[in-house]
UniProtKB/TrEMBL annotation:
Gene3D superfamilies xrefs: 2.60.40.650, Oxidoreductase, molybdopterin-binding domain
Residues annotated as domain Moybdenum cofactor oxidoreductase dimerisation: 287-405
Protein name: Sulfur dehydrogenase subunit SoxC
Entry-linked PANTHER family: SULFITE OXIDASE, MITOCHONDRIAL, SULFITE REDUCTASE
Organism (species): Cereibacter azotoformans
GO BP term (any one): sulfur compound metabolic process
Domain of life (superkingdom): Bacteria
Essential cofactor(s): Mo-molybdopterin
A GO MF term: molybdopterin cofactor binding
Signal peptide segment: 1-31
Domain Oxidoreductase molybdopterin-binding as annotated: residue spans: 113-268
One Pfam family hit: Oxidored_molyb
Keyword Oxidoreductase: yes
Amino acid sequence: MTDTTKKGTTRRGFLAGAAAGGALAATAARAGGPDPLITEVQPWAQSLGDGVDATPYGMPIHFESHVVRRNVEWLTADTISSVNFTPIHELDGTITPQGCAFERHHAGAIELAKPDWRLMIHGLVERPLVFTYDDLIRFPRENHTYFLECAANGGMEWAGAQLNGCQFTHGMIHNMEYTGIPLRTLLAEAGVKPEGKWVLMEGADASSMSRSIPIGKALDDVLVAFKANGEALRKEHGYPVRLVVPGWEGNMWVKWLRRVEVGDQPWEHREETSKYTDTMADGRSRRWTWEMDAKSIITSPSPQAPITHGPGPTVISGLAWSGRGSIREVHVSLDGGKNWQQARLSGASHDKALHRFYFEFDWNGSELLLQSRAVDSTGYVQPTKEQLRSFRGVNSVYHNNGIHTWWVKTNGEAENVEIS
Ligand SMILES: Nc1nc2c(c(=O)[nH]1)N[C@H]1C(S)=C(S)[C@@H](COP(=O)(O)O)O[C@H]1N2
Ligand SMILES: [Mo]
């Protein structure tokens, strides 16, 4: 094949033209001769592919088998009362597929069939009620997209940089479109008595996960959800029914929901006293911290997603979210917070849901101290870790929403660091 005779119509001509444009320089550099991937008939074009009955329910193609939840062995004594992390460094857009959305169980993920599921509403109500799954789905439904963030997301980073990858530092989060019945609809069916000011939400697993929620939130946007991203909840996320508590810490999103009790005061159960409370510098703990403050993280480049293409056009990508509303702006710094530039938000902007941001720039190959900073719709600005510690000390585990830093080296590798 001669590829120089008719410039502009041949492959070499095309690549030379592209190289002049800059963006395809890396591809053009390989243009020593004909590319067999283009010029030769490949195996996948010499035989037929799979039939439509080969995969009744599809899994990701095996080339993507590294895009999975991962756990950190030393973090918990066993894998039953434990957590794994969403591979946020590999995902894009805003929706988290259920198959790789992080899991947090206190007594393992249980198997509870729809016919065996019951939801009880009792306590300070006019009519104590029990719903079956078939009862539940006869109420009017709503669809909403929300993030769930475990309050402990980033907990290991309070004292300093520790885990090398955003999957581990920020991966206790997922974002799904839920189909469910507003809790207020079910409470109205039971008739909350005037003295009913709190609800206790309890799960059916052996942990008896239970949390107190003020009636105002329960009657606002809380959902009793049975689908996520269009399909049934996965077992790991509470099949057949879980609670969705928009913007509030993940622990309150009770899975395998079985009981709603209406009361006149909070129950002060384990998960809202000895756990999921924030210990301050003086050793005393904050009683409640329900809302998740605005936060952001650059997912690429990051330690698990280095820059592999060398200097030139580079895409920075990341996630931002707020438990108080939507994300108004995200700023990106290349120099550890000295200078900030506006990132570009792309995709859906739902209240209390993940937002995707991008920042495109021409990397000159020098070291970077990458940071991102979210501003939410209330005007709240994500704090630095220093600011956070000045208020909260270093005894905390939960609710670390400090600005995070990746040190990008000249070879494109990134490392979790903290700068002061
Ligand atoms: N019944 C029950 N609900 C539960 C839990 C649990 O162990 N049991 N864990 C809670 C915690 S701490 C979190 S962060 C979220 C995690 O939800 P996910 O596993 O869908 O990510 O569920 C919450 N709901
Ligand atoms: Mo959690």
